[in-house]
Design brief:
275 residues, 10 strands, 35% helix
Length: 275
C-alpha cells in the first residue's frame, strides 16, 4: 500500500511540473566506448500480462527521451524466469548528474505524456541496486553496439546473465582480486563473455523520489551468451570444471552471506546490452 501511494504521489507531482523541451530523437544511436561510473540495476514487478505493454511503451517513448537528459539506457530485458518482471539498466556520469538528469526527465514532456500508462503496468519499482564499477576497466564496453531505430521488433537471440553476490560488508580488493584472478578465468573457460563488474555504490540516494535498496552490499557481474542453449552448455562445462569442483566454488560461496542470485535476461528489440 505504501509503495502504491508513493508511486501515485510521484506520478502526480512529476506530471504537474511544467514540461521541458528537448531535441527530436535520432533514428539510431551509437554509444561512447564505455559506460558508466554510476549504474542502476532496476527490477520492476508488473501486473499480470502487462510486461509487453510496458516494453513497447518503454522502447518507443523512454529511450531517447532519457538519453537526451544525459543518462544512458544500457539495457531493457524480459526476465526469463519471472513472467511479470521487467529488468532494465541505466547509467550516469556521477551522482550529481544523476539527480539533475532524473529531475529533468521526470518533470519533462515524455513522462508527463506517458506516466499514467506506464504506472498502470507496475506493482513494485523499488527493487533497485545502485552500483559503481569495481575498477575503471570493468565498466560496460559499448564500442561495437548500435541500438536499432524506434519501431524495431527483432528480439535478439542472445541472453544476458546478471549474477548478484551478497556480502556482510562492501567487498574489498581482496575479493575483487580473488574474482579476477581465480573465478573469472574459470567462467571464461566454461564459455561466458563478461560484460561488466560492479559493487554497491555507498552514497546517499540523490533522487529520493525513486527509492533504491539501502543497507545491502553486493557484487554484480553481467555476462552474455549467444542463446539459451549456449548458456546451458556453459553450465554443463562449469559443472565439469576440475578447478570449479576442486574447491573454487566452495571458496567463493564461503565469502557470501547467501546463495548467489541469477537473473536470466532476454534483451528487448532496442536493448544495447545483449546485441
Amino acid at each position: 500500500m505504501i509503495l502504491k501511494l508513493a508511486l501515485g504521489l510521484l506520478s502526480t507531482v512529476l506530471a504537474s511540473t511544467p514540461a521541458i523541451g528537448g531535441e527530436s530523437p535520432a533514428p539510431e544511436t551509437s554509444p561512447s566506448s564505455t559506460c558508466c561510473p554510476i549504474v542502476e540495476l532496476r527490477q520492476y514487478t508488473l501486473r499480470p500480462g502487462q510486461r509487453d505493454v510496458l516494453i513497447e511503451l518503454f522502447d518507443r517513448e523512454f529511450v531517447e527521451t532519457q538519453e537526451a537528459e544525459g543518462m544512458k539506457i544500457l539495457g531493457q530485458f524480459r526476465d526469463l524466469d519471472r513472467p511479470d518482471r521487467f529488468v532494465w539498466v541505466r547509467g550516469f556520469p556521477d551522482m550529481a548528474e544523476r539527480a539533475r538528469a532524473l529531475g529533468a526527465f521526470y518533470s519533462g514532456p515524455a513522462w508527463k505524456a506517458h506516466s499514467k500508462a506506464a504506472n498502470a503496468t507496475m506493482v513494485d519499482v523499488a527493487n533497485v541496486l545502485l552500483l559503481r564499477p569495481t575498477r575503471p576497466e570493468s565498466e560496460f564496453s559499448l564500442e561495437k553496439l548500435h541500438r536499432p531505430a524506434p519501431g524495431s521488433t527483432d528480439v535478439p537471440k542472445r541472453i544476458v546473465i546478471a549474477t548478484v553476490y551478497y556480502f556482510a560488508e562492501s567487498p574489498g580488493n581482496d575479493f575483487l582480486d580473488f574474482f579476477d584472478r581465480e573465478v573469472a578465468p574459470v567462467l571464461r573457460d566454461a564459455g561466458t563473455s563478461l560484460l561488466g563488474q560492479f559493487v554497491t555504490k555507498d552514497s546517499p540516494n540523490t533522487f529520493p523520489a525513486l527509492p533504491v535498496r539501502e543497507g545491502e552490499w553486493v557484487f554484480v557481474f553481467f555476462s552474455t551468451f549467444r542463446d539459451g542453449a549456449a548458456y546451458e552448455q556453459y553450465l554443463a562445462e562449469l559443472g565439469r570444471s576440475p578447478r570449479w569442483n576442486g574447491g573454487l566454488e566452495k571458496a567463493l560461496l564461503s565469502r557470501l552471506t547467501r546463495s548467489p542470485e541469477t537473473l536470466r535476461l532476454s534483451p528487448t528489440a532496442r536493448s544495447l546490452l545483449g546485441r
